[in-house]
Design goal:
By secondary structure, the chain is α/β, with parallel strands linked by helices. It has helices at 3-13, 47-56, 81-91, 101-105, 110-117, 131-134, 139-142, 159-170, 202-207, 236-240, 243-254, and strands at 26-29, 38-42, 60-63, 95-98, 121-127, 147-158, 176-177, 187-197, 212-217, 230-233, 259-262. The N and C termini lie far apart (43 Å). 42% of the residues are buried.
Length: 272
């Protein structure tokens, strides 16, 4: 199969029109007509990603975060890592494809995966998408699409029990939140979440009556004024860490005989 075939399959699951207006999902680098020998999936496209792809013989990298997100007016290896990645990818005939907010907003996408990991039930979208984003798509498909998700835990948990669940399932040591403002006896049953930078949807979580809202990044003052709901920040990478495997599983579903590798390390960040 070709790069364009894998792109078409991903876009069948997560149409590009679902992406937000600021985004740049889709083919980033490479020839859509190129035959694919092996695929590497990753959260971020870095110089290490390209080295890994070269090492395993992959000629297609599929990432969540786009390499080309803001305007690139100069490709200079001494200017930034983006230039170096582009040049290395072209040098080694490696195509780069990204499924970003279209995968965030799709049914069965990034946020559904987080909900699945946490054991949430009755998962549905937290905030609906615009008519422009969903125009022409099948109503049954659109009904499951949206920004963030909300669902129910199998059993109500205390605040400490819920935090322990998150730390265990997300493999993180600490979370930041507004617990000082929330009734310590509060029980957590309805959970809303949005992987990555999702503090824009705190109001939606309040609107649907969520007991807790989890996201990857929260600006300082966004925590204020919500004693009715626990707001927790778990880290951008930590909340989206399952996306590389989600992408791999999507590709394997359509192309079971294609070699697909998941990058063991998708982020250059280190937690001290």
């Amino acid at each position: 199969m070709k790069v364009k075939d894998i792109a078409a399959w991903i876009e069948e699951k997560a149409p590009l029109q679902l992406q937000e207006s600021y985004d740049n999902a889709g083919l980033q680098v490479g020839d859509p007509e190129a035959e694919v020998s092996r695929v590497l999936t990753t959260l971020d496209v870095t110089e290490e990603s390209v080295r890994l792809a070269v090492g395993i013989g992959a000629n297609l990298i599929v990432s969540h975060h786009p390499l080309l997100f803001r305007g690139t007016k100069q490709i200079n290896p001494r200017r930034d890592y983006i230039s170096r990645v582009i040049m290395a990818a072209i040098r080694h005939n490696i195509a780069i494809y990204s499924a970003h907010t279209n995968l965030d907003n799709a049914k069965g996408g990034v946020n559904y995966k987080i909900g699945e990991v946490l054991g949430l039930r009755q998962i549905r979208p937290l905030a609906r998408l615009s008519e422009q984003q969903t125009a022409g798509l099948a109503p049954a498909f659109v009904s499951g699409c949206g920004s963030g998700i909300v669902g129910e835990l199998p059993d109500s948990l205390s605040l400490p029990e819920f935090v322990t669940l998150l730390k265990d399932k997300l493999h993180i040591e600490a979370l930041q939140g507004n617990a000082a403002d929330v009734d310590p006896e509060k029980k957590i049953t309805k959970v809303a979440l949005c992987g990555g930078a999702g503090d824009d949807f705190i109001a939606d979580a309040v609107r649907v009556g969520a007991d807790a809202y989890l996201t990857g990044e929260v600006s300082y003052h966004a925590y204020f004024g919500h004693p009715e709901m626990l707001i927790l920040c778990g880290g951008h990478f930590e909340t989206e860490q399952f996306t590389s495997r989600l992408l791999a599983d999507m590709i394997r579903e359509k192309y079971p005989d294609l070699a697909v590798e998941v990058a063991a390390k998708s982020s250059p960040l280190v937690t001290w």
